[in-house]
Amino acid sequence: xxxxxxxxxNKFIKALSLGLTVCVLTLSQAFPSLAITADERVAQHRAxxxxxxxxxxxxxxxxxxxxxxxxxxxxxxxxxxxxNIHQQxxxxxxxxxxxxxxxxxxxQLDEWVTFSHDAVFDTPYNSNHIAMDVGEKxxxxxxxxxxxxxxxxxxxxxxxxxxAGTGSWEDFGPIMNERARELGALGSNFVNPNGLPDENHYxxxxxxxxxxxAFFENELLCKxxxxxxxxxxxxxxxxxxxxxxxxxxxxxxxxxxxxxxIGAKTGYTNAARSSLVTCAEKDGMKLICVVLKDESPYQYExxxxxxxxxxxxxxxxxxxxxxxxxxxxxxxxxxxNAIFGSSKPLLALNxxxxxxxxxxxxxxxxxxTISYETNSQNQVAEITYTYQxxxxxxxxxxxxxxxxxxxxxxxxxxxxxxNVISDDSSSEEPASSPKKDNSFIYVNWMYLLIGIxxxxxxxxxxxxxxxxxxxxxxxxxxxxxxxxxxxxxxxxDFSSSRAASERRMNAKRxxxxxxxxxxxxxxxxRNRFGDYD
Length: 533
Description:
By secondary structure, the chain is α+β, with helices and mostly antiparallel strands.
């Protein structure tokens, strides 16, 4: 019996060993999830830096097993917890929140969606589906239920084809990317509507949170995403009763049920590992949590830990109740002069705007910066609030509804102290010279009254000159002659009429005197001097 050394030369063994090593390294790079165990991956992720924990005096967040994680306040967009939030990851089925959002925005619930050959046969048999067949149809409402409850991949394909209108789900990718950019998700690239593996299909925790802000604003989508069971009744277009259960373990009655949950979408592939996008609301504060590249069941534990951290360490506060530098008692919110004993506010802080304040700091600790760059017609300026360069919210300065006057906010603020306009000492432009907003007109009542007086004096002078010139004729032709002498002609007519009336009255008085003397002569006769008494 020959030994292996005799059968295989040393050179062959070395070449084979080298080849196997290269193969292992190549597979490790192409499929990192296969290179280490789940426990090793969790240990690596937990050792990673949590960027939000490095902010001075910021509440310390929990250590999570996800490679990327974010906790965002939905209304303000303030980021409360950040761990590799801009690192590109595979989203798996969390992609479907964007697909369903676009479908809800563009389609009616009673539209019929037809399943093509590609929609059915491009779906891997071992992935999530509801066994639709070529040529069958579902309403858009049933499609949304199938995607969000059962995470049905062939239904996502069919919806993408339906919206693209070209018969190819690949044409839905550009639509997804355009909507993502509109929502502020700039680090993503979507190539399919369901998140099935593709190296060019990626996103970030931050981008999914920004997409989630729009998704979780839709009550119907939230309700569907927290429904435990899918039920699709048979119709003439598909004859099967379809009943499927959601795999989400945070729903009521499940292992990781969370009482404040209002919406969620799970995801998993070998490359992406476990991902989860959720939203919860408590005490008027709505939080969005995204965990990517996590290990089951840690995606649920991490999400609950992050929600509890957010609700326990942050408060959502109304800016108008705390702000003093831009309060309406300041003259910059009033007209320059009181009219008839009172002045009316023209500008006010928006009473609905809020910021998210860590419980470890006070409102006086935050920095505010005012900007006049705004696209809203009713908005004059926007105040941005930060703490240690971390955005925590903003508030707008608006025209008071029902105010008739126009007002230049910038014109008044020129005379204010610099710290009233901006607390940001690193601003490139001087605080005392903010950028002008030409959409407003400054009304100075003193100048207005002087202008009116000048107009009245000018009108009086014109009247006097015209009256004087109307008594003379300069032989001016055409329009000017008629204009100058029209008043004289009217005056002449009036004077002639008045003189005739006076002549008639004098003649009448003389006649009356004559008749009175005649009556006296008849009554008394002549006196001795030959006259009548």
